């Protein structure tokens, strides 16, 4: 298993999916799960700041999330909401919903069940989020914490929004990622932080392919990849 944590705009989702494909493993986007609950909260007309109401509603939300890196389906009930959960309203409210202890308890338990099921079925999974290495799966044999400068992350987020047809600017994207960083790192329940034994990887000056190469090398050294260069696994055991 690979636990991949880090703030928004570091390339987590793209990297996690490509790495899972490289490893022949499953894939889980835990952030999408919090966005699903947030979308349900907004559609119900519930105030994201009303922790009791949000916690109660979260228990009644029926959603499914795929674990295929090629096509990770995201459904609220029977509806495909992969695009809806990335909208600005959800992005604005997801930190508040994610900070509700009842929501985190519910989703962490579900994440652990999904991880166990995928590991039993395929033997490997790449899980991305903000508390995977610290809370969800602290026993993971490889923990990686992706970082990037605020300017780079803002530019990436603005590019993603533009590609998806959402109105944006780099300045607005920077304000959004910095706000999310502040809220996620200061919340009481499972704050955003690197696990003590996580390997930090700064993606500011790296292409996606370069990040994948770096992580594949780490996976080789931890014995998580079969087709490693000669000596990689021996180096890990030395």
UniProtKB/TrEMBL annotation:
Enzyme class: transferase
The species this protein was found in: Amycolatopsis rhabdoformis
Region of interest: Disordered: 157-196
Ranges in coiled-coil conformation: none
Binding site for ATP: 6-14
Protein's UniProt name: Cytidylate kinase
Main location: cytoplasm
Keywords (A to Z) from UniProt: ATP-binding, Cytoplasm, Kinase, Nucleotide-binding, Transferase
């Amino acid at each position: 298993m690979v636990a991949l944590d880090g703030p928004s705009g570091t390339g987590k989702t793209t990297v996690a999916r490509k790495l899972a494909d490289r490893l022949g493993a499953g894939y889980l986007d835990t952030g999408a799960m919090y966005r699903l609950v947030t979308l349900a909260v907004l559609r119900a007309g519930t105030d994201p700041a009303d922790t009791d109401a949000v916690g109660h509603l979260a228990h009644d939300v029926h959603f499914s999330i795929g674990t295929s890196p090629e096509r990770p389906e995201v459904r609220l009930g029977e509806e495909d909401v992969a695009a809806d959960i990335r909208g600005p309203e959800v992005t604005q409210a997801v930190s508040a919903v994610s900070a509700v202890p009842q929501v985190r308890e519910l989703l962490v338990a579900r994440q652990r069940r999904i991880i166990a099921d995928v590991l039993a079925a395929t033997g490997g999974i790449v899980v991305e989020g903000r508390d995977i290495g610290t809370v969800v799966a602290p026993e993971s044999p490889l923990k990686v914490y992706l970082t990037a400068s605020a300017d780079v992350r803002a530019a990436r987020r603005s590019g993603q929004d533009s590609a998806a047809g959402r109105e944006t600017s780099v300045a607005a994207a920077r304000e959004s990622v910095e706000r999310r960083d502040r809220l996620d790192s200061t919340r009481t329940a499972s704050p955003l932080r690197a696990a003590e034994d996580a390997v930090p990887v700064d993606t500011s000056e790296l292409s996606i392919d370069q990040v994948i190469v770096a992580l594949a090398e780490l996976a080789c050294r931890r014995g998580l990849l079969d087709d490693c260069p000669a000596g990689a696994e021996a180096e890990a055991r030395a």
